Structure prediction request, 512 residues.
Amino acid sequence: MAKQKLIIFDTTMRDGEQSPGAAMTRDDKLRIARQLERMRVDVIEAGFPAASPGDFESVKAVAEIIKDATVCGLARANEADIRRAGEAIRPANSGRIHTFIATSPIHMEMKLRMSPEQVLEQAIKAVKWAREYTDDVEFSAEDAVRSDNDFLCRVFDAVIKAGATTINVPDTVGYSIPTVWGEQIRSLIERVPNSDKVIWSTHCHNDLGLAVANSLAAVLNGARQVECTVNGLGERAGNASMEEVVMAIRTRSDLFGCETGIDISQIVPASKLVSQITGYPVQPNKAVVGANAFAHESGIHQDGVLKHRETYEIMRAEDVGWTTNRLTLGKLSGRNAFKARLGELGIELASEDAMNRMFGRFKELADKKREIFDEDIHALVSDDVVDPAEDHYKLVAYSFRSETGEAPQAKLTVSSGGHEQLEESTGSGPVDATFKAIERVAKSGSELLLYSVNAITTGTDAQGEVTVRLMRDGRIVNGQGADTDIVAASAKAYLNALNKLHSGKEKLNPQL
Ligand code: KIV
Ligand code: ZN
Prediction:
């Protein structure tokens, strides 16, 4: 019997973006959207257009360039949000509005201060407003997991009558467990009138580490859309991880009556891209996309795999895109080869100026590093300042000194609002000294929450990619920098974070 389609709804650029410091620029979103389209994701939730003018523009820009996937904008169940989302998705070949309102007693009473009847009325109105813009309207009952099932049935019945075409059942707080969640989905589908006229969807958070398991239980009980994110990025402990959901459905196709349309060879490239853009490293033991996911350490395992691979491998590394680093370009590669490779990677630069700047930086890197891989190119682009004029802080020059018995010392010239300042500092190590010297210029008063370094490719000439997370006045930002010199990469990452704090472009979080 032919398998049914399982719709993969990616919310990396909306729920994923709600991870601390993971805010994405329009260009970041365009790069991720192109990769998601290459992966053949069905629905791309590109953002929350009412959150900020920047988010509106990003969703609109994604809607303009994506041809094969449905582009979706999130909206609370109020007229202003929905009209904003409607405008943002207008250019899409296929556009969806996703509207939501909380249905649990605790959310209705304590957060919305609305009665259940008011929530019901608002949900109906929201779906009707959304239908003015598109025939593709998704309704979510936020905190469905802690909602009364009889009330949920009334709300879902009413929004289906009002024109909702997808009904999403979220475990907003990651509270359920697979048997219970599967049963809740099954009973809703059984009880809600006309449930066969809509797609049932699930959206699970990972607070108890069960987001993927709960999503799969929902699929076994009739859900035909899973909302998920690349690398499981998302609020708090994150969302269901797309790569795990997709590979579970595929690897255990004997258990599931449905299949996804995902091109699994794009899974690892997508994971690396999202990690690079957000500064959220992937833990080595993460399923499917972690560096150790296919590494066999024990002698018994290695022996088994050498004799017959399937003794210890249920998936093939190369199928999900774990090719060895692909040699792309080198020192002798010309501008055309560089431009062509950018095109193949789905990277479009805004202007000839940007292309010239990037090509110059590529040549500088090729002088330091013999082989340039796709990952290096992605890092160059992530690291590039799209409009250098917009940056308040810039690294002009630096030198570092470390010697046995001496405190490491950093000397930096930093431009702050166009004014160059030379500062030096010692520290417990060269990175500490560098950050102290930068702080002498910036006096940001921010707190360093995270510092991490990852090698982008293998070998001692690999670029180090540094993430710095800073907090000031409750606002959290991530800065990234890449360089073959990790102290320079650290300085760039710190300045990148300071520039984000300085730009102060605030966004709303839909769940606040
Ligand atoms: O977790 C949640 O409930 C959400 C909704 C907006 C779908 O993200
Ligand atoms: Zn969510």
Notes: The longest helix spans residues 486-503. The chain has a mean pLDDT of 93. The pocket of 3-methyl-2-oxobutanoic acid (ligand 1) is lined by residues 15, 100, 140, 142, 168, 170, 172, 203, 205, 510 (CB under 6 Å).
